């Protein structure tokens, strides 16, 4: 009892500082702080490693200006596991589906850069290309010729590109073969790739869904233990209308939508810097407002994004200090936090936190 009386005020103080720092309520961050004598440990349930040093400095500064003092503060991250209706896949804590209603809005490009951005924020990440009919992830990762190795002819070791594990139908069958598969076969193939890949321990598996919101996407969203989704759209009315169908689809299968990413928000002239909203303005913002969803971020129509995708040299990895990479990391942090808050809201404070017990459905 004596111990508790002594540390509780510091705990409360740090929770208040943290809540202000992340624009949250104090109650939402209570579990993140633990005080042991004069040592403080802050464990964030989302990926934001690039901010840990800054956050630690902020906490120390606030403590200095307060009546409290501590010997040491550590800031680290530990991603929790979200609940799903379907049994989880071995070693995977959370599956995030990246979807778009309309094709060609930059869903795959965003999924790839987001995966690397999450990794740079300290998460263990993999990517699965579910675009059975037009797998583009192998091209974007620059390892089109790779194929998964199998020691037992049953399970696949996923190829690795730029430090990220990935699997795709594109590594397994010629494009023309998959292109004629009917819907159920495509969903079955995806489920099989997901289950038979020897994924290492992952905080997030990003799934690049095929474009659209038809039966195939719905079946995939139902059959796969998706923890949450992200919708990519352009600000154009046509894309927004389809993005709404995407939100409706995830609502139907009870998969939370973490937020929207507005891609190709504007074109910025490389010579004069003028911004031109080619695909209209404020589309993502108004859609996010309409559905009460966060707008996780916006990316410009930019030649570098296209060139890096075509060349198989993911922008976030090869240009990590660029403004664009920074934007992808901001989106990654926002998505990861949104997921952590949704996980916390959905489960009581007990057993599902921390590393999951690795198990496979019977
Ligand atoms: N912000 C951007 N700026 C410039 N080019 C982009 C941007 N985002 C994506 N692209 C380019 O647009 C094209 C389509 O992108 P991508 O394949 O990611 O879209 P998609 O929505 O996944 O398409 P599909 O629905 O056909 O799978 C690609 O050539 C890609 O390089």
UniProtKB/TrEMBL annotation:
<dbReference type="InterPro" id="IPR044304">
    <property type="entry name" value="NUBPL-like"/>
</dbReference>
<feature type="binding site">
    <location>
        <begin position="101"/>
        <end position="108"/>
    </location>
    <ligand>
        <name>ATP</name>
    </ligand>
</feature>
<keyword id="KW-0408">Iron</keyword>
<comment type="similarity">
    <text>Belongs to the Mrp/NBP35 ATP-binding proteins family.</text>
</comment>
<dbReference type="InterPro" id="IPR027417">
    <property type="entry name" value="P-loop_NTPase"/>
</dbReference>
<dbReference type="InterPro" id="IPR000808">
    <property type="entry name" value="Mrp-like_CS"/>
</dbReference>
<keyword id="KW-0378">Hydrolase</keyword>
<dbReference type="Pfam" id="PF10609">
    <property type="entry name" value="ParA"/>
</dbReference>
<comment type="subunit">
    <text>Homodimer.</text>
</comment>
<keyword id="KW-0479">Metal-binding</keyword>
<keyword id="KW-0547">Nucleotide-binding</keyword>
<keyword id="KW-0067">ATP-binding</keyword>
<comment type="function">
    <text>Binds and transfers iron-sulfur (Fe-S) clusters to target apoproteins. Can hydrolyze ATP.</text>
</comment>
<dbReference type="InterPro" id="IPR033756">
    <property type="entry name" value="YlxH/NBP35"/>
</dbReference>
<keyword id="KW-0411">Iron-sulfur</keyword>
<protein>
    <recommendedName>
        <fullName>Iron-sulfur cluster carrier protein</fullName>
    </recommendedName>
</protein>
<dbReference type="InterPro" id="IPR019591">
    <property type="entry name" value="Mrp/NBP35_ATP-bd"/>
</dbReference>
